Amino acid sequence: MSQTIGRTRLAYSRAWHHVSLASPTTPSLGRLASRIAILLMGKHKPIWDPSTDCGDYVVATGCNDVLVTGKKKEQKMYYKRTTRPGVMRSLSMESMIRKWGGGEVLKRAVRGMLPKNRLRDKRLERLKVFEGEAHPYRTNLMRFEGRIRQVEPEIKTEVLKQTSV
Fold it and tell me: Which helix (H) or strand (E) holds 71?
């Protein structure tokens, strides 16, 4: 028997998921990042394998409304090292949101949730973040807020001729 049962091209097809951070039921940053990481890795699919990249695309909108608990906006620090020894730059979450937007904060949180291997950058490229609600991927989305999008079939104006045999 073949070992590739169920590992068809249809099983590896990538879906597009939509996450709106502006909705009132959005979880906090860490919980949201772990859910997005699961979608990017493909762990929600029955064919998941750690060595293959079978994850989906995720479009996150409204990233300027990132929800964090406590005083993390003022106290959480992001560090960046330069090539010079002894030089380390720090930036608070609040100033990072002002400088680069909430999308960068979300990307860094998701990056920390992904496994540290050669697939991490490829998976992170499939995360599309936008500050507002507008984005160019509306036609690709399969799910809006967890509900499956219904696509209406195109109506052909041509009349099909039936031929009798």
Answer: none
Quote the longest CA-to-CA distance of the chain.
Answer: 86
How many of the other CB atoms lie within 10 Å of CB of 9? 6
pLDDT, tens digit (0-9, with 9 covering 90-100), for 27-86? 999 999 999 999 999 998 888 888 888 999 999 999 998 999 999 999 999 999 988 998
Is residue 17 within 8 Å of residue 39, measured between CB atoms?
yes
Within 8 A by CB and 6+ apart from 61, the residues are 18, 19, 20, 21, 22, 130, 132, 133, 134, 135
Separation CA 32–CA 15 (nearest Å): 18
What pTM did the predictor assign?
0.80
State the DSSP H helix or E strand holding residue 30, giving kind and residue range, or none if neither. helix 29-41
